[in-house]
Amino acid sequence: MAPAIAISSAQTKPQQRHELSALAEHEVLQKRNEELERELKRSLEREENMKRELQRTWERLRVAEEAEERLCSQLGELEAESVDQARAYRARLMSLMEQLSAVQKLQQASISVPSSR
Q1: Overall pTM > 0.85
Q2: pLDDT digit string (tens) for 3-15?
Q3: Is 64 helix (H, G, I), strand (E, B) or coil?
Q4: CA-CA-CA-CA torsion for 64, 67, 68, 70, nearest 10 degrees?
Q5: Helix (H, G, I), strand (E, B) or coil at 1
Q6: Hey, is 41 helix, strand or coil?
Q7: DSSP per-residue letters across 45-63
Q8: CA separation for the pair 62, 30 (Å, rounded)
């Protein structure tokens, strides 16, 4: 019979344990990596959603600013128109007051002049 070398099981156990723990550690790391990849994917999706929301908000802001500019312009036009109307109203009022005053003076003059009959 050929000579055989016997290896005791005590010598292989630490190596097997090391291989098992390395395998287990590899699985744990692989699972953690998958978990981190899922978290990254969710984070990137949230980031994209936030970018879209920011873009929509930016567009609403731009529309609101344009509307504000139009309203300010219209308000300025209305203010100018109201000032013109107020001036026209005042001028008409002054004209009517002068006419009334002239009529009152004529009435007073006709009352104070005695009749010549």
Answers
A1: no
A2: 555 455 545 466 6
A3: helix
A4: 160
A5: coil
A6: helix
A7: HHHHHHHHHHHHHHHHHHH
A8: 47
